[in-house]
Description:
This protein is an alpha+beta fold.
Amino acid sequence: MIMSFQVALEVSWAARGSATLDRLSRREEEPPYAGSRPLVCVWCEGRSAVAMRVNESTVLLGPRVRLVPYRRAHVLRYNQWMQDPELLELTCSTPLTLEQEIQNQRSWHADPLKLTFILCARDDDDGGAIPDDLTSGMCGDVNAFLSEIDDDDDDETSVSAELEIMIAEPAQRRRGLARTALQMFIAYLLERVPRVGRLVVKVTDANVPSLRLFESLGFTVHKPMPIFQQTELRLSVASARARGWGALSREVSCVVPPEGEGQA
């Protein structure tokens, strides 16, 4: 999926590789993509995994934004996005065939290290109704990639969540959608995955809008990564919780049939 954190961080890093223990690839946005470059996420054996299918039947409604689970119905449009040379460059990706993208979506759906929503623009006058067509307003995605924390800075039983967001549709950029989606997504993530002890984002140094976006959300520079021409920023979980972002959205559960039941 594309992600945009307008970090540049509206950025999103779309890991288009395989699953666990594989090198991931990423993407950017509003500036189309906000996130980092290839990263290796390892889920240590012997530690409990987090089932990232927690959102498979969940829709989040917020101001001008609707977050829906990534389904087979979204793959065609997503694949079309990822033929764009600019997005491919921003997300450090290579173009995939439609069949490869379908396999990628299936892998993401079952992967315990990923949590993904498709970002859709919505009209606040829609009465909060969930459209039958979950591709309505589709314009990007937002993701978290989980890995065990195993250093001296944090509780080793905690999980690090690396965030990415992307606004792929040019007409939907610069509208604040990435900011709102990130706030909604972080609040949901902390509620549903209580083991998260660290929020991380890695932004390409040239992606100034993304850097500014994340800084405006409270992220601070943790360390420069000159070899990759990136900067790693972090936000403490306590600080994120204190911002009250959960009040921005309303969670609608069980409105989407589980994958394979009505939506292939």
